[in-house]
V8-like Glu-specific endopeptidase (Streptomyces inhibens), 394 residues
Amino acid sequence: MRSIRRPVLAAAALTAVVALTATGCGPEGDNADAKPSQSAAQDTGGGEIKIPQDIQDKLKEHGIDLDKWKNGEWKNWDKDKWLREAGEFINPIIKNFWNPDKIDKVKPPQDPSKPEDISEDQGKTDPEPAAVAAQPVKTPYTSTAPGVGLLLFSTPEGESRCSATVVKDPAHPGKSNLVWTAAHCVHAGKNGGWYRNMMFVPNFNKNGVAADKLKAAPFEDRVPSGKWWADDMATSNEWIKGGGAVPGVPMAPYDFALMHVKPEQSTGGKSLEEIAGAAYTVDFNAPAMAKIPSLTAQGYPAEPPFDGAAQQQCTDKPTRLSMDAKPTMYRIGCTMTGGSSGGPWFIKGADGKPVLVSNMSMGPRPARWSAGPHLGPEAKSMFDTMSKKWATKQ
């Protein structure tokens, strides 16, 4: 694999995390009639929602009113309201916005590409791999694939979904709140901004129940490890400046993203890693592809022939897919469809445990192969910035 030298700035984003349907935060008990202190008034955003002053200032700067946001203003995708730059990711929690029935019905983004058009203009380093049929991941996912889950978000076209994974945070060993996914799952690229209502459901539908039977499954089986809202987000400047809402050329080699999350409901101080059951090391210096005997991609494909309810996987020896003047991508034979984007690509580490080296990014229609970005210095810079930012807090 050729070296990757082109620098990229990590887009670590400031986020407001606010329970918009929270009850009032005013005084209780013997002081119920007392007026809040000046500091309390400053931190409550109108006396209903407790918001740090710096976040209030950030929201005001962008003309965002939380009450209006809660009542539907988040649906305003006008360019002057659609935040897109690094430092502008704002994702207030709207409690129960993602209820189980709504989660079950969400579909992946519509891909307007036609068969073959992704590969027509690409320089291929290796021949196209043979298709590898995706296979169901063994259940329960809480034991066989802990930490892999469903990512839900709102776009101008409606609610959408991808896949994502809990990754280890060196600043918080055993207690990570970091989640890895694809850039096109969180940001629209050059013609748009950050998506909204970003929420992660680890171990979704842990028993792999079919979509037509999912509604009857117990809530604790459908959402076994809680709902986690992004409160910080990072991706590459390459993607922000030149990416697209639909994955593909020319910025697919930079199609990766990292988020920090917080739970919708209290977990008693437990982290995402503790609740989900696992987190995975990210390898930013993976071996050359010729030295990787096999790579496994996982995710929740939701386009036919898949129904989005069950987790699937493909295992193949990776080959190379090159873009003009861009880092070479991994490519494997795989029939997973839309909805699997952002899902983890694993190799076996020295200890035999899965190590994340890429994520699902792009592929042709009908699905025969998939490609994912090489995670090098650019991705590591993004990751390190996020980890250091949250090193003294969770």
Remarks:
- The chain is about 15% helix and 20% strand.
- The two ends are 37 Å apart (CA to CA).
